[in-house]
Amino acid sequence: MLETSARLLRLLSLLQARRDWPGRDLADRLGVSDRTVRRDVDRLRDLGYPVHASRGTDGGYRLGAGTAMPPLLLDDEEAVAVAIGLRTAVGGSIAGIEETSARALTKLEQVLPSRLRHRVDALRASTEPVPADRPGPTVDAAVLSTLATACRNLERLRFDYRAHDGSSTVRAVEPYRIVSWGRRWYLVAWDVDRDDWRTCSTSTST
Fold first, then answer.
1. Are 53 and 95 in the same domain?
2. Which distant-in-sequence residues (6+ apart) come within 8 Å of 178 by Cβ?
3. Is residue 101 part of a domain?
4. Phi, psi (5° rounding) for residue 121?
5. Are residues 189 and 141 part of one domain?
6. Which residues contact 135 (CB under 8 A, 6 or more apart)?
7. Mean pLDDT of successive 10-residue segments in the chain (206 residues)?
8. Domain that holds residue 105
9. Structural element, H or E, at residue 203
10. What is the CATH number of the domain that holds 49?
């Protein structure tokens, strides 16, 4: 049986890995009783983790969103994937996140076990980015966030649009998806005035 501190970390990892957990499943995974799971959930709550519980035959537990970002528990493959993603973002096409990505990558690499740090370092040492002849287009991170929120919330957008011939118009659209292609980002949306689907680039040259 796991010691209490190790069991709490394991419980937190399980809650982060899946949206809903039946209490019986958690007990089986941890090798403890349902009562122990309830006590451990209370300990997590005391530490500031918002764990929600539902009663009944289908009752269980869910880790909710809190006022602060809780520590994330990553397995080996997840940690390497995050490190690679952050390194890619440092020189990517989204403006304004390079420095933030570099800081997050530094924090992650400081705590990576040596076996994982070697894997990340090997990829960095063996990969040679091909420099472009000129800076590529970038898009502001705040713009992407606004568009993504509008897609999720089914909100209508109005924005200035410049066509290939240089003419400018105001578009009213119902956004559907954001598509990344190479270094460009595109918004796929229903054009309200033209009663048709449209795709427009959200990137701007640096």
1. no
2. 144, 147, 148, 151, 185, 186, 187, 188, 202
3. yes
4. -65, -35
5. yes
6. 205, 206
7. 78 87 92 93 89 80 76 82 82 76 84 85 72 64 85 91 85 90 84 90 55
8. 76-126
9. none
10. 1.10.10.10
The tally of domains found in the chain comes to 3
Do residues 143 and 112 both lie within one domain?
no
Q: Is 153 left (phi over 0), alpha (psi -120 to 50) or beta?
A: alpha
Tell whether 119 and 154 lie within a shared domain: no
Alpha-carbon distances of 142 from 33, 84, 89, 145, 163, rounded to whole Å: 47, 23, 15, 5, 23
User: Is residue 185 in a domain?
Assistant: yes
Smallest Cα–Cα separation from 151: which of 199, 184, 188?
188
Decide: 189 and 178 in contact? Cβ < 8 Å: no
Reading the block at residue 169, the tokens are 């118009």
* Number of residues that this document lists for the chain: 206
